[in-house]
Every structure is written in C-alpha cells, then in structure tokens.
Amino acid sequence: MSKLRAERLYKVFGRRPDEAVAKLEGGTDRENLRAEGTTAAVIDASFDVEAGQIFVVMGLSGSGKSTLLRMLNGLLEPTAGRVHFDGHDLTGLEPRDLRQVRSHKISMVFQHFALFPHRSVLENAAYGLEVQGVPRKERFQRATEALELVGLGGWESSWPDELSGGMQQRVGLARALATDADLLLMDESFSALDPLIRRDMQDQLLQLQKRLKKTIVFITHDLNEAMRLGDRIAVMRDGRIVQIGSAEDILVTPANDYVASFIQDVDRSRVLTAGAIMTDPAEALGTTTDDGTTLRTERDVLDAAPATVTEDTPIIELFTPCSRSGVAVAVTDDNGSLVGVVSRARLLAALGEPGTGPDGAKPTSPGEPDAPESGKKVIADA
To answer: How many angstroms separate the CA atoms of 52 and 260, rounded?
Structure first.
C-alpha cells in the first residue's frame, strides 16, 4: 500500500468554489472560471507515493505545485478530493488530530530557510521537537545528531547570520530530520541557493536518502533538479498533472507537446539508462562479428559484447563500446544473466530529436486514439 495518496484533489479560490469544481468536472476551461472571478489552482490531481520514494512535482510558476503540497499536510483544505497518509484520511481529521499528524509525522523544509535569528543553530534544529513537547535534553541530543547528519557538527552554538545560504538550508533540513517524521515535504527548498551550493545540497539529500529512506515530496521548477532527484516525477501545467513517470519515462515517451518542449534541453545521455533503451537479447542473434562469427546463442552475445553493463548504467557510458564494435552492448541483471542488449542504432535513436522515443516515435497528445499507454504514468488533459 502507498505511503501517501492524493485522490482527485481540487483547490479553488474565489466565489462558490463547489460550483466551480462541478463546472471543471463538466469540462469548463480554467480561463473561463478566472473570468468569473474564480481561480482553479489545482484540478483533479491524483497520485501515489510509495514509502522511501522521492516524488518530485515539477512545473512553472503558477502551475499549482505549491498549492498541491500544502493540501498534502492540511495547511490548505481541498475544495474536493482526499489525501490519505499511512492509510488515514487526513481530510477527515479534526483540527487537533491534524495538528498532531503535522507535528509528529510530517515535516516541511521551506525555500527561505525559516530560521529564527534569535536562536542558535542547535535551538533552530530542535524547534520541531520543542513543538512536540520533547524534553530539552532529549531534543538537543536528537538535534545534534541531525546536524551531524547534514554536515554541521560543531556549528551548534553559531547564529543563523553566521552561516552561508547553503548551511542555513542544512539547518532547515536538520530540523525536519530531527523530528524523525515519516514524510518530508520540500517546497522549492534549494531554489534560493547558488548553482554550486544547490548541487551540493542535492548530493546531500541523495546521500541522506540512501541512509534514511524517507518518503519525500519535493517541489521544483527546475527540470534538471527533478530529473536528478526524483524516483518519480509529476509534471504540472495550469493546475493539472499532465504526466507522471520516472525521468526515463518522461524523456522517452513525453505525454504531449508541452512535456516534450519542457524536456528538449535535458542531457538525455546522463538521465537515460541502459535499461530504459535496451531491446530483447534476441535482437542480437544472427549478428556477425568482425572475425566472421555469427552469434547464435545468448552465451555468444555475452562473449562477443564490447561491454557488459547493468540496467542502471547511464547511456553516456555506452558511447565508447558502441563506437568500437558492431556488436551490441550486453545488459545483465544482478546475477549476471543477459536481460537485454543496446545496439549502436538503438543508442543513436535514444539520443535523437528531443520528444521522440528510442524507436523515433513522436509523442501523442492525451486523448488521441494512438496515445501510448503506460502503467508508470498518468495523463490528464493539459
């Protein structure tokens, strides 16, 4: 069962929001509602987040991603729809119970650090525990451990204005980790940082995630950040989720022209993996090697392959072996068994025009008869 589930969430600001939801469900355009003085910030958003997963919500300013995040922990009440967390319906909780969930089970990391200038680094990191009523000695011990995790050991007595922007954001992250919350909500948490510090914070988050395996919902407008961090990514436009999938899903089979244009400048060679573009091993059978040997069995393919890689190998590492041999690169599982091959032609196709799949197919817009189906993505009208 998923850790977090959003079911058909709507958030409408303005007059008669319930009527606006009914109109949206009936096909009324968002712009028509705006002309009536009503703003539909989130429209029919549904998704699941598994335990230990980083789920990234990506979109431009005004797409509704931050509003969506605030509905997940009850800071904003949905106009319609449900949020389920750990099997409990958060939208049905009494205010007191919801506050308990927010203080013990869900932590938030903000864009602008939100540190108290009159409190030390240690006191800031321990603030969430103070809200929970944890005794001073215990909360300082746990906050110290969290600061160690984010690389700020020894800075406990410093003041926020003595820290760089990246260090201040680490304090915010330590505060969230100190509560040992099951769910972390991160709203543009790294966007105020300089590029080098931002990448360092991304590295820090990925390292922590390997160790702590938290469930994280991460909001960003930066596509490269989304591709780097997200186990799964939801792309939002005008309040709607237009596609959900892994970075590879979105690069290889964008749901529509909007997503295809969004990803056109991504370095596909560093995001796509061998597993995403490999074909069946049978595709290599019948190939003739430079010495005239014909590959007739999977063992022949493994022996003749210019390189053997795993499914999660970035395709940038396949360039050299594919350029040196006409035989496909072998892709194996953890047991060393052949699970696929990547030929030179397949590799070049995957690096082709942005918005095409490895076979060169163009994306189709949602609703078209030949729109591709995938269990890993959800497509809604943009």
So the answer is: 28
